[in-house]
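Protein modeling request. Please complete all fields; requests missing the sequence field cannot be processed.
Requester role: graduate student
Desired output: 3D structure, token encoding
Chains: 1
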Amino acid sequence: MGNLEVANILIEAEAYAVWKSPEGRMVDITPHNHGEDRILFLPDKRVIYKNNQNIANIRQELTSSPLVERLIYLYNERVRTMCSTPGDKYSISKLIVMEINQIQYMLHQEVKGNEFCPCRSGLKYKKCCGK
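Delivered output (131 residues):
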């Protein structure tokens, strides 16, 4: 699993299939093109890759926000649909896409330290997502 932090609100472990060469070198056999220059691979024996199967990412919130909790739920719904649909094409509800976009917009607003956090945790930004 590779790790990705999203705007101080959540951390995401993204699934990769990695082959270990006889020399001990780790080779990514399912490269993702997200512009990374380094990836930390952490083995997870619970995840088994089979024939181009989609594997759901694991997400953990970094704040106690109900809005972030909802965003993670929506991301997981999108991934469940993707993983349960054969082939490269899948269809998700327009309402899910709109709600994901709306929450992402709210969470990426520019905020000053003493203002309340846009994640709706009830905390000041500097003590929440701005930490």
